[in-house]
Fold this sequence. Notes:
Layout: H1 2-14, E1 22-26, H2 32-36, E2 38-44, E3 62-68, E4 71-77, H3 88-101, E5 105-114, E6 124-132, H4 160-172, E7 177-184, H5 193-201, E8 206-208, H6 212-220, E9 225-234, H7 245-268
Parallel strand pairs: 1-4, 1-5, 5-9, 6-7, 7-8
Antiparallel strand pairs: 2-3, 3-4, 5-8, 6-9
Helix pairs in contact: 1-3, 3-6, 4-7
Amino acid sequence: MNPQINETAEFLRRKGMLNPDTGIVLGTGLGELAQRIRPEVVLNYEDIPGFPVSTVETHHGKLIYGDLCGHRVLAMQGRFHYYEGYSMERIAFPVRVMKQLGIQQLMLSNAAGGINPDFGKGSLMLITDHINLLGSNPLLGPNDEDLGVRFPDMSQAFHPGLLTRMRQVAAESHLRLCEGVYAAVPGPNLETAAEYRYLRIIGADVVGMSTVPEVITANHLKLPCVAVSVITDECDPDNLKPVKLSDILETAALAEKSLTRLFEAYLMGEPK
């Protein structure tokens, strides 16, 4: 993968994507933050050598480079999922390219189902740890020592300093920020009542179909990362009701205003 990473990074530099300090990945229905970026370069994924193409209708499939709160950001408006048929290596590829371009931190967001009964629909949850139930890993296969060590430590998968900063800005912005564990499952189907019970028993507070491959990749690269879930539906196994994608998107649209405020407040206090 290393030659392809270099080729893609060089292509993006030629397009003007120079010296970004922050990478951002926006999840399902969470596009408002992208509108807040003062864009300098916007590319469709399909026009970027080596990039996968998002096949999910709610993901715009654009890479945006520009200014956000005084930072040079590189934002993925839409991500790639295991259920789309992509290998974990392909899912990890954009994070590796962003690191090659120079980002110093990675901010991730996602829409997730709420398992913890104390977290209501529309809440924001700071991810403090994760459980990988995807059945695969972006680090499978021969290890590229230029990217990272063979056995990266995951005891602090989400950077303690970034977690502290996110807590501080949430408090200063008067935003309620829950904290908990994110479980990643393959999807694309939602879970059964028995599966929700199982996830709660093993310690998950929310469940989704993304983010974990990117976090593992970031840790392999020694790239500090922080992630926030928007809880779009309540997964009570004793009172389970069918969930429509339109309902998930409606909740995400309402909650993303708080997510945008949180991410912007975070960046405003960060050194450039």
